[in-house]
Write a structure and sequence with these properties.
The structure holds two protein chains of two kinds.
Chain A: E1 10-14, E2 19-24, E3 32-38, E4 45-51, E5 56-58, E6 62-67, E7 72-77, E8 86-93, E9 98-100, E10 104-109
Parallel strand pairs in A: 1-10
Antiparallel strand pairs in A: 2-7, 3-4, 3-8, 5-6, 6-7, 8-9, 8-10
Chain B: E1 4-7, E2 10-13, E3 19-25, E4 31-37, E5 44-51, E6 54-57, E7 64-66, E8 76-78, E9 87-94, E10 103-104, E11 108-112
Parallel strand pairs in B: 2-11
Antiparallel strand pairs in B: 1-3, 3-8, 4-5, 4-9, 5-6, 7-8, 9-10, 9-11
Classes of the chains: A mainly beta, B mainly beta.
């Protein structure tokens, strides 16, 4: 029979609002994390990274927060723009191999 | 400009055929990786290679084969033994020992017809 893929979590925001995308990671020993943006039919693009000795890192319009106690990572996008519409996923590693999250689909409403 | 190039962008395969996906990089990266991406799932590692003429199986290597005869090239063959090959395939590269510097290609969408 036909297989049905899992549905991605989705987030819809108004243009200009802030977006928060969450990721729960699995390995408490992971010491490096990356957020990627992936547009339809394209490869993932690096957005921002953070090492486990930090709990916050800021880039241009993006901030990553790391809570090691509950193994949670979040990506905040300020003043969300239509060009931010994409799937966002996190990746974690202990330095050996990356493990990737399933992603969240962000839609920006003009 | 340096980068990683995957070709073709779209590929159609008939049942029972082998197909080869190309991945070329001019970043002078030692390590190269192949991932499979399915809807609603995270990227899964198929094969990786840290140096020329050496490669290791990833988490889902069954039904796939690779070669690494040149530093720049890491082709992936999807064999007829792969029961569900329809997916988006991504190639990545990094400096050896520097897993933190991943660069991804733009992907190949393989469809079985």
């Amino acid at each position: 029979g036909e297989s049905v893929g899992l549905h991605l979590p989705t987030l819809s925001v108004q243009e200009g609002d802030n977006s928060i995308i969450n990721c729960a990671y699995s390995n408490s020993a992971s010491d490096y994390f990356i957020w990627y943006k992936q547009e339809s039919g394209k490869g993932p693009q690096f957005i921002i990274d953070i090492r486990s000795n930090m709990d916050k890192r800021q880039g241009q319009r993006v901030t990553v927060l790391l809570n090691k106690t509950v193994k949670h990572l979040s990506l905040q996008i300020a003043a969300t723009q239509p060009g931010d519409s994409a799937v966002y996923f996190c990746a974690e590693t202990t330095g050996n191999q990356f493990y990737f999250g399933t992603g969240t689909s962000l839609t920006v409403i003009p | 400009d340096g980068g990683i190039t995957q070709s073709p962008k779209y590929l159609f395969r008939k049942e029972g055929q082998n197909v080869t996906l190309s991945c070329e990089q001019n970043l002078n990266h030692d390590a190269m990786y192949w991932y499979r991406q399915d809807p609603g799932q995270g990227l899964r590692l198929i094969y990786y290679s840290q140096i020329v003429n050496d490669f290791q199986k990833g988490d889902i290597a069954e039904g796939y084969s690779v070669s690494r005869e040149k530093k720049e090239s890491f082709p992936l063959t999807v064999t007829s033994a792969q029961k569900n090959p329809t997916a988006f395939y991504l190639c990545a590269s990094s400096l050896r020992g520097d897993i933190y510097g991943y660069t991804f290609g733009s992907g190949t969408r393989l469809t079985v017809v």
